[in-house]
């Protein structure tokens, strides 16, 4: 018997001739009658090939093909292949569906077309493809003809799937002229290759190398000892132009097991160049990966500190990706790979900052020898508020002192106190009582020990500022309230909590009901705090005649104006006073360099007797306002002014 061309029809072979054939016919008739009585099973249709195709689709989606019968392999082997093919994709799995079934009724052959969709990224674009699968009806059961291409187009038996992300080159940080400040530069990773040296020899080599690359020998030796037998243990990464590498390169090469590996790394023009501001780039930490919600993966390069961290998403762009068919050797190494699907990356956008490379270099050179105490210098363009330079000395250890330090500004704050007096009716010539000492609620305030006695008595406010008489300004504590000081500070760009597009501190003048603390505020002590940036902005506001806000990142939203803006007339009085500081007071040292406005400051701190003092010098010339700070010094003239002198001399030559 055979099946006819139409499903459900049955064609009998003709039985002719002998009685035996007749008996067979009768017997078959009996069987047929019996079969009909039992439920007509011999007339049931064969299984639907679509059911098998759908089971295959489901199995490919779950990597479990146990419900599918194969021709050419077993369900277990097919499942094992699919699991191995998917292994490097982690939890990523396809959506697989039957899109078309080609089968003629009565035929024992069928072709299924499966549609696969992989959601490989957050973008709307997915990896999709169709595969055609041949099926054969054997013993009333559809069998799938197995090939690795059932899993993905043209996949071979020795290939697996892998998802490779492709980051674009990180965008640069630029100066206002478009020149690159922070960009990829050639570096060399110097370390010990443990495949070339082991055991006690590795430890000895590590110590020799450490001495040549200026790192702790014992710590590096311990690091080498703890690493695996095939590890490359990095000691330091140096620029190709680093003097240390140039000086010791030949000696490094002679150390057994030492290896210098060339690479590219995002760096500034020099190791120290605006480093606390620009920040660093490195491999993403576990915390960053977790916070990114799968945007980042282990090994990705991200901003770690500074502007590189704050603007990381803008600078790194969006990764592309590629689905690859990968062929590996017995040791797991990649022998060959080919691309099955690709999604292009999106380039990051450069970040432009206001730093003037010549000014920054001059500022860093001015502080380069300050290894004993933390120091800082900030230069601001008066007309725009642009930060031209913000440097720290070596003893600051790469801190954010220049833009975000929180230190007592000392007598530089008398610029603010002068404005508060002006708003109470004072002028530059208004007389203030400058006495050797002044007691406020049991606390005695004095002038500095070398204050000139000829300028004691009732003296003009301009003279009190020029020679920095503490008692003259504190004497106004009953007339000028703490709120008045706070308002005056804000008018000069100090003391407001603004949403800055960088790590910075604009100072603080706290409210207080304590009379002694209020009195101390007049001379920039008590709880008054400022950064070098803060005091540079105060000077810039005086020079411009209106409140100056800082700018460091180009295109950042404008910062709001203070509730009480600085009046140009008020600023004019302050300029008169600050000119006198240069003409006859503590700023005379800056006069030869063309400085027009200045003020020194000292602020006591600590528990020593006598206490140590922070020292300041602020200055203005042309379109530049400058603030210099030294954590410990005798006075602003000797402890901070030299930084400004060095900066201006160097800057003028560039």
UniProtKB/TrEMBL annotation:
Residues 168-336 form the Penicillin-binding protein dimerisation domain. The keyword Membrane applies. Its EC number is 3.5.2.6. It is an enzyme of class 3 (hydrolase). InterPro entries: Beta-lactam/transpept, Beta-lactam/transpept-like, Beta-lactam_class-D_AS, MecA_N, PBP_dimer, PBP_dimer_sf, PCN-bd_Tpept. It is found in: Membrane. Pfam families: MecA_N, PBP_dimer, Transpeptidase. Transmembrane segments: none annotated. Belongs to the class-D beta-lactamase family. This is Beta-lactamase. It comes from Terrabacter carboxydivorans. The lineage of its organism: Bacteria, Bacillati, Actinomycetota, Actinomycetes, Micrococcales.
């Amino acid at each position: 018997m055979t099946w006819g061309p139409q499903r459900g029809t049955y064609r009998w072979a003709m039985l002719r001739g002998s009685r035996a054939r007749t008996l067979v016919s009768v017997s078959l008739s009996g069987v047929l009658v019996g079969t009909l009585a039992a439920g007509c099973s011999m007339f049931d249709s064969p299984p639907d090939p679509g059911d098998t195709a759908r089971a295959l689709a489901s199995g490919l989606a779950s990597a479990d093909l146990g419900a599918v019968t194969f021709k050419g392999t077993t369900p277990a082997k097919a499942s094992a292949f699919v699991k191995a093919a998917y292994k490097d994709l982690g939890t990523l799995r396809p959506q697989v569906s039957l899109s078309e079934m080609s089968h003629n009724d009565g035929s024992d052959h069928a072709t299924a077309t499966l549609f696969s969709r992989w959601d490989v990224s957050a973008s709307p674009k997915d990896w999709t493809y169709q595969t055609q699968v041949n099926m054969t009806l054997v013993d009333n059961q559809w069998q799938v003809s197995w090939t690795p291409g059932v899993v993905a187009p043209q996949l071979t038996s020795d290939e697996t799937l892998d998802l490779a992300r492709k980051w674009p080159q990180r965008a640069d940080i630029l100066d206002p002229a478009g020149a690159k400040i922070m960009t990829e530069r050639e570096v060399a990773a110097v370390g010990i290759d443990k495949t070339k040296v082991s055991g006690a020899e590795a430890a000895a080599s590590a110590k020799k190398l450490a001495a040549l690359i200026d790192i702790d020998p014992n710590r590096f030796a311990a690091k080498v000892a703890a690493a695996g037998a095939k590890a490359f243990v990095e000691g330091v990464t140096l620029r190709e132009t680093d003097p240390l590498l140039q000086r010791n390169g030949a000696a490094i090469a002679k150390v057994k097991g030492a290896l210098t590996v060339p690479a590219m790394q995002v760096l500034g023009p020099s190791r120290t160049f605006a480093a606390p501001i620009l920040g660093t780039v490195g491999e993403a930490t576990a915390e960053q990966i977790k916070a990114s919600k799968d945007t980042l993966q282990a090994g990705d390069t991200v901003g770690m500190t500074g502007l590189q961290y704050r603007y990381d998403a803008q600078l790194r762009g969006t990764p592309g990706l590629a689905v690859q068919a990968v062929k590996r050797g017995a040791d797991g190494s990649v022998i060959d790979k080919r691309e099955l699907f690709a999604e292009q990356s999106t380039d990051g956008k450069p970040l432009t900052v206001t730093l003037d490379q010549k000014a920054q270099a001059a500022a860093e050179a001015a502080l380069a020898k300050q290894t004993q105490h933390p120091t800082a210098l900030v230069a601001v363009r008066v007309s725009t508020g642009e930060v031209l330079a913000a440097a720290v000395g070596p003893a600051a250890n790469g801190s954010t002192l220049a833009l975000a330090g929180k230190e007592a500004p000392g007598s530089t704050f008398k610029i603010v106190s002068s404005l508060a007096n002006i708003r109470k009716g004072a002028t530059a010539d208004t007389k203030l009582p400058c006495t050797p000492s002044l007691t406020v609620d049991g606390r005695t305030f004095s002038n500095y020990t070398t204050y000139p006695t000829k300028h004691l008595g009732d003296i003009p406010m301009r003279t009190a500022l020029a020679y920095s008489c503490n008692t003259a300004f504190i004497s106004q504590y009953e007339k000028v309230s703490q709120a008045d000081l706070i308002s005056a500070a804000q008018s000069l760009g100090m003391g407001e909590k603004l949403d800055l597009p960088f790590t910075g501190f604009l100072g603080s003048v706290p409210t207080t009901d304590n009379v002694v603390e209020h009195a101390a505020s007049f001379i920039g002590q008590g709880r008054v705090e400022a950064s070098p940036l803060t005091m540079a902005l105060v000077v810039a506001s005086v020079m411009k005649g209106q409140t100056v806000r800082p700018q460091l990142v180009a295109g950042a939203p404008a910062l709001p104006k203070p509730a009480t803006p600085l009046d140009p007339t008020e600023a004019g009085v302050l300029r008169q006073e600050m000119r006198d500081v240069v003409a006859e007071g503590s700023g005379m040292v800056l006069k030869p360099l063309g400085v027009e406005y200045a003020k020194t400051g000292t602020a006591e701190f600590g528990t020593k007797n006598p206490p140590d003092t922070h020292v300041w010098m602020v200055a203005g010339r042309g379109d530049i306002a400058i603030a210099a700070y030294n954590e410990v010094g005798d006075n602003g003239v000797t402890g901070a002014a030299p930084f400004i002198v060095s900066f201006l001399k160097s800057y003028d030559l560039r």
